[in-house]
Design goal:
three-stranded antiparallel β-sheet, 3 strands, about 110 residues, alpha+beta, Arc Repressor Mutant, subunit A
């Protein structure tokens, strides 16, 4: 579970949020799942350079924090789908705002060059 999600200490709410969704891969995972429900293999193909081990770890962290959910279908081979939970769905406007901020930031950096 994310370090900033520890209820034993009083911490900044922003630190809690960034502890749960921050890092190199979680933003990309959340962005993908905000688009649609995806299977593990789809996520792995969609996110360049992430290892299978790291993807599993990040998905477990997000699931432990109740940001995403997974559905396992009883078939062979097993079919597992990942999607945003109700808490995760509430992140969509924040992710949209971050995307807009990033585009504006990058446009400013490009025009300043």
């Amino acid at each position: 579970m994310a370090r900033a999600y520890n209820s034993d200490h009083l911490i900044c709410p922003t630190e809690t949020a960034l502890g749960i969704i921050g890092g190199k891969w979680k933003g990309m995972i959340l962005w993908c799942l905000a688009q649609r429900t995806m299977r593990f293999s789809e996520l792995h193909r969609t996110i360049p350079n992430i290892t299978q081990r790291m993807l599993i770890k990040q998905l477990r962290d997000l699931e432990d924090c109740e940001i995403i959910e997974r559905k396992v279908y009883p078939e062979v081979p097993p079919k597992v789908e990942y999607y945003l939970s109700a808490h995760g769905e509430r992140l969509t406007p924040i992710l949209d705002s971050l995307e807009e901020w990033s585009r504006t930031y990058l446009a400013g950096k490009i025009s300043a060059s």
